[in-house]
């Protein structure tokens, strides 16, 4: 049986930002943030600077939406990691949303939820779908990001299994007791820790502070990775095939 899909229950209206609230939050976390290995790792290689971060935080947009948001969030993923840290500080999680079924984050849209979010089912991010959960994001099923780009971000993230070509950002860590496949090498995940079963991320330079897994695929070997994912050796679209396997599973 395949779960029926439901769009996110929150309105598509932009998330308003209070400029002074954001600036005050940044002032509180700045010292720790700019010294955090997860921010400074590869910073020079990708042109990430503290001066640019300071500039962005001095001029937050009036709201996070599909327009002005990207002037604030655009560029290397370190800037989105930093924005997540500041938003979590500025807007503490004060609520919890319980969702059921297959929840779909629409593409070409930015959603910010200042709450814990629990999905009893799957969570699918369509292309260019961006979801910032300022509390804990927990998914009992699969977390799937469609090609070619999506962002799932949260204070912490938990899912049963996962597959994405996009970014997964978690301040306190990612927990996935099953299998997570981070496909394609255009983007990276960033988290204080990754704890789980099978981690397949040989294509990417993910930035994890600590990794505690049963098995990790790090060799550049697509046939071997396919076997680990339960797919045919000659499968030429591992991400697409594994995503569909997760979303069509009875598990």
Low-confidence stretches: none
State the secondary-structure class.
Answer: alpha/beta
Oligomer: single chain
Separation, N- and C-terminal Cα atoms: 9 Å
Question: What is the gyration radius calculated from CA atoms?
Answer: 17 Å
Mean pLDDT: 92
Determine the fraction of residues in helical runs and give it as a percent range: 25-40%
Most strands sheet: 14 strands, parallel
Strand content range: 35-45%
Say how many strands there are: 16
Shape: globular
Order of helices and strands: EEHHHEHHEEEEEEEEEEEEEHH
Q: What's the total helix number?
A: 7
Defining traits:
about 250 residues, alpha/beta, 14-stranded parallel beta sheet, two-stranded antiparallel sheet, 16 strands, globular
Structural overview:
This protein starts with a strand and ends with a helix. Helix 1 crosses helix 5. The strands form two sheets. Strands 1, 4, 5, 6, 7, 8, 9, 10, 11, 12, 13, 14, 15 and 16 form a 14-stranded parallel sheet that branches. It has a two-stranded antiparallel sheet with strand order 2-3. It has 251 residues and is an alpha/beta fold. It is 26% helix and 37% strand. The protein has seven helices and 16 strands. The relative contact order is 0.11.
Overview in brief:
This protein has 251 residues and is α/β, with parallel strands linked by helices.
């Amino acid at each position: 049986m395949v779960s029926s899909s439901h769009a996110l229950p929150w309105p598509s209206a932009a998330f308003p930002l209070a400029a002074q609230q954001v600036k005050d939050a940044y002032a509180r976390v700045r010292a720790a943030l700019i010294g955090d290995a997860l921010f400074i790792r590869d910073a020079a290689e990708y042109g990430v600077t503290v001066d640019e971060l300071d500039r962005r935080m001095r001029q937050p947009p009036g709201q996070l939406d599909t327009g002005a948001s990207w002037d604030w969030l655009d560029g290397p993923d370190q800037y989105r990691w930093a924005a997540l840290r500041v938003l979590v500080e500025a807007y503490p999680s004060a609520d919890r949303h319980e969702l059921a079924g297959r929840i779909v984050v629409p593409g070409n849209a930015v959603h910010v939820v200042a709450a814990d979010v629990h999905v009893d089912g799957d969570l699918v991010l369509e292309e260019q779908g961006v979801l910032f959960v300022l509390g804990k994001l927990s998914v009992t099923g699969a977390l799937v990001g469609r090609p070619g780009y999506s962002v799932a971000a949260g204070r912490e993230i938990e899912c049963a299994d996962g597959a994405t070509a996009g970014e997964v950002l978690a301040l306190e860590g990612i927990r996935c007791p099953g299998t997570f496949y981070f496909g394609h090498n255009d983007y990276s995940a960033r988290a204080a820790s990754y704890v789980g079963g099978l981690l397949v991320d040989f294509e990417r330079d993910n930035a994890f502070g600590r990794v505690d897994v049963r098995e990790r695929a790090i060799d550049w070997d697509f046939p071997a990775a396919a076997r680990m994912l339960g797919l045919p050796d000659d499968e030429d679209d591992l991400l697409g095939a594994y995503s569909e396997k997760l979303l069509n599973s009875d598990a």
